[in-house]
Amino acid sequence: MALQPNVIQASHAEAPIGTLSGVPASRYRRRLLGWIVALSCFPLTRAHAAVDVVARHPWLNRFIDEDGLERRWLNDLLAPLTLDQRVIKLMNSQAEAKPYHLYRPIFINDQRINRGRRRTQTHASLLRSVEKRYQVPGKFVMALWGMETDYGDYHDGFNVLRSLFTLATGYPRRAEFFQSQLRHFLLLAREEGWEPGAIPGSFAGAMGQCQMIPETMRRYAIDFDGDGRRDLFSSVPDVLGSIGNFLHGNGWQLNGLYAVRLGADPRWESLQQQWNKQWRSLGDWQRDGIRLPQQAQHIDPEEQASLIRLVYGDGPGFHLAFNNFKVITSWNRSNHFAMVAKELADKIQPA
Prior knowledge:
Layout lengths: L18 E2 L5 H14 L6 H5 L2 H4 L4 H5 L5 H8 L6 H7 L8 H8 L2 H13 L1 H11 L3 H12 L8 E2 H11 L4 H18 L7 E2 L12 H7 L8 E2 L5 H14 L9 E5 L4 H7 L5 E2 H6 L16 E9 L2 E7 L1 H9 L3 H14 L3
Parallel strand pairs: 1-4
Antiparallel strand pairs: 2-3, 5-8, 6-7, 7-8
Helix pairs in contact: 7-18, 8-10, 9-14, 10-14, 10-18, 11-12, 17-18
């Protein structure tokens, strides 16, 4: 089955329509070719062709019945793949699992802060355009770019197809999620005319300078530079515009609340456990004994908030998280990630 290129409609009404770049240009193209040779050589043998991957994994039938992918093509594509044990090992030892005081220095350090400030100056005009269109602060766009790929300078050396197949078939705890991401990746490849085995990314199947998973990339990637392609691999305008589009699409509120640090009252341990990951009105939290610091007394008691616990070097600390914090956890569900994103944003571009 030949993968035919097609134009994907950008999800946001204002976003220009285009395609993601299947073969990124210049520096990234050279790097990509190296990755293709190193990571994507899965020779198809008769033994591979004889393996009925679809019969072995019946959930693949959805790709055939609902999406029109050919059974033979799926078997030919997936049969040569072996599980990448590095992927499973990394899934079980992610940085977000560290205590907060050990996780924070990974991103809050002079090198990343200073580089972020320089890149913010370099792309100041572009960031103003992103801010204007999507009503999101440029400093948060920069923080996410910086946390994901160190402002485009870092690229994981994994084959996306193999990573997603590994997690869809060999990682039971989140297999359903990664089966869905494999589906979105194959659809993205069909829509863009990609060779599925030639796309580099992270061990979890994220791609491009902003490390979007396939489903997110299909929905939020945009052509911000107006060249007719949505290129999250080598176009900085498309990368930053797509981050802005994501934040806007997930409900970012301009000048909205983010988080308030409360301190370390031991009475809040049981309260946090009781309402873990649940959102309630600030008034409800206050009736349960939460007391806001003086600078936060003005917050509307109807604001929705979640009580989170972070482990600092001297013990646990508690925060109330609000809407914009929640939006960042739509990007990465870790509270650690969301808290660091705010701090990095503020250090890149102080108020």
